[in-house]
Amino acid sequence: MKRVLPLFLIIALVSGSCGTRSLSLQVMQPAHINVPARIKTLVVVNHTIPINKWWNILEGVLTGEMIEQDKRGKNEAVKGLVSRMTESTRYKIINSSETFEGKGSISGLTFPDALEWRTVENLCKKYKADAVLSLEYFDSDFIVTNVQKMEDKDGKQVPEYHAQGVANISLGFRIYDPKDKNIFDEQSFTYRRVWNAVGSTATAAALLLIDRVEGVAAAGYDAGMSYAERITPHYVWVDRMYYKKGKKTEDIKAGARQAEVDQWEEAIKTWTNALNSPHKKDPGRAAYNIALAYEMQGDLKKALEWAQKSYSKYGNNQGREYASILQRRIEDQKRLDEQMGN
After folding, report:
1. Which of 201, 271, 310, 324 suits a disulfide with 255, CB 3.0-4.6 Å?
2. What phi, psi does 210 have (nearest 5°)?
3. What is the pLDDT of residues 100-110, one digit of tens each?
4. Taking 60 as the threshold, does the pLDDT of residue 65 lie above it?
5. Which residues contact 143 (CB under 8 A, 6 or more apart)?
6. What is the pLDDT of residues 324-341, one digit of tens each?
7. Nearest to 48 by CA among 113, 119, 121, 123
8. Do the Cβ atoms of 46 and 100 come closer than 8 Å?
9. CA angle 214, 220, 221 (to 5 degrees)
10. What are the structural domains of the chain?
């Protein structure tokens, strides 16, 4: 199987009672939906300009929003979107400065009427893009709450104020495909981020919280990244366990040392020797470690074979769980190949 993963490793020196150690690695996850492989270049536009600007002014007065709050949030949502999407080679992303009024939505809290197909076609022609990715609506609020608690300080009860700032983001995206004149994704969702602070008074605690404009901007950025993962293959960190020592053989320990310096081929040979250990648990642990080594090399088929053998032949229960993980990775890899056009 083709190797598609970088070997970014973090060895966590956490040992369990059964002589295990953990490591973390990055694996590429497929997007949640399949965007047609022919769509390789996307131009990003802003379709959230309210046709009724007086509504937004009134909303800002009524809700206490600062003038720049939604503007910053929208810009950061697009930045987060583009940042996450450009981590993958799946697309070429063009972040344009194009803005369009959202007809059909007075408040900007729902999807506006779709862009006209002539507009979509002109955008794709202008930017040499295959499709248009549009931020269709965006709304935010930032709420601060205070709770007074009594804390013991040197035997005395003194008041302590806990402030919490909550940024709530509502937004929606569309992807316009001019070839088929089809909106093949229309997704709305909400995103929430929380900050906490402690002070001697309610005011002091509130002042220690993030500024509301900055809070909405930070939450908007994360929300944009969240949508990007829906349509873009992306890297995630996963944890793996391996055995660092055996019961009646030094080969498992020796192989673990080789693995920790990225000598996976050598580790496989060393762990293979441990399959002959007289202790009933050692062969299962060695087979499990061999499975991990093959995963680290990108050979998921062999990794699955050894994980299954660890359980079915040698009775290592961890092998069964690992085999399930690897089966899901193989299924994900098939989807990933399709999405990347491999």
Report:
1. 271
2. -60, 145
3. 987 755 455 67
4. no
5. 165, 166, 168
6. 999 999 999 999 999 887
7. 113
8. yes
9. 95
10. 41-232 (no CATH), 245-340 (1.25.40.10)
